[in-house]
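#struct-help
A.M.: can someone run this one for me? Single chain, 503 residues.
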Amino acid sequence: MARIGRALLSVSDKRGLVEFARGLADLGVELLSTGGTAKLLADAGLCVTQVSDYTGFPEMLDGRVKTLHPKIHGGLLGRRDVPAHVAEMRAHAIEPIDLVAVNLYPFRETVARPGTTLEDAIEQIDIGGPSMLRSAAKNHAHVTVIVDPDDYEPVLAELRGAGGTVSVETNRRLAQKVFCATACYDGARFGASFHRGGPKALDMRYGENPHQAASLYGDFLRVAEPLHGKELSYNNVVDIDAALALAEEFRAGRDAAVAILKHNTPCGVGLGGDPLEAWKRAYATDPESPFGGIVVSTRPWTLALAWAVDEIFTEVLIAPDFEPDALELLKRKRQRRLVRWHPEADEVRAPAVRGVVRGMLVQDQDTAIEDPREARVVTRRRPTPEELLALAFAWRVVKHVKSNAIAFTTADRTLALGGGQTSRVEPVRTARARAERLGISLHGSVVGSDAFFPFPDGLEEALEAGATAVIQPGGSTRDEEVIRAADARGAAMVFTGVRHFRH
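D.P.: on it. Structure tokens below:
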């Protein structure tokens, strides 16, 4: 690779750009830029040439046309090893552009916002950005192309250590990243085709079972950062994904929340003034199932919580942070995986994808959650304020239990959970039986059901177990029978109108 002499910087996400540009300038690289990016660099004291001055052609049509010019794309696409290309470039005064840093207009974020108009969405369709990226990526034998700000520092380090050059291997890796990024951009949001990808993050030892190969792609490890322990397995990743989705329901709450999961379904959730109190309430739901499970805390992991959890075998422990003394204690078990949760790195509205035979199912994430106080009261008795608090907790938990799902809870802990059954009444019986076996009273509890009760039997079973209030979507043809059954026992029941299946 020849020494990089000229770079074009034009970005929507300006994270880390000034530092990158300053590093390039220190290496003697000429900087070209556009619009707001050029202003940012100039305001930082850097010498930068506007693309319009470089091409001799002004930005046009409200900025829609600024980089679509032969001096730009000729500088990107011209092969330095082909004499005819070099001669043509010289004849037309086209200088080579050796490095491009571009990221794209936030189209996906714009269309995901409620109330976005078609006109707003259209204005966020990037034309020049993908064109420059693809031109540079096509000619990656001679051009370094960067679409991800996280690559700025590694590229700078390589430039500094290699006399201002970048290796062919690095350029190839960056080009592959570009093609993935532009394909995903073009296929955003339920279009005629779907594109989603990302760089390989892990080659796993095996998949769900030892005879299945597996790899992890994308930015999962930005959200769930491994700190200690064995490399994450396929099943670990699936479980962590489920744990973070459940924890997100409680992250903004006043109390600490701790959830214990097994086979990507909760077996206990608790709230408390601190993580240890929350853990005790979660663990009391089912002291048997946490063995080999996943534990997630919405608050930093304390030493007190570390001592409590250290007594049992767990696969993965997750928290936004770990207090230093807690981390030191937990690291004593070499096999246990510790994961730092970065919720700010999670793209909440990214679609959920599931593979099927020769295809994929793509849907919005189930981020909705209904407030029982705004739900329709369908029984003669209204829920008490205490019951409403418990119903809100039950509703946040039950949407993360495998359907058909039932959750008996108080306002701050799960008492019994049932799910993954083929009838609505069976998970009630399962939860009730487990509570009886563990000596947990369901008297005075509330119950949440992820979908409607199709018959009164499931509701009657729950009320006989001691529940006093129920939250469910409603919508069954037998709703009136179910309501009468609740009224006959003096129970309160609310309909949300929204179900939360989790298959």
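A.M.: thanks! The chain has a mean pLDDT of 88.
D.P.: also worth noting: The two ends are 52 Å apart (CA to CA).
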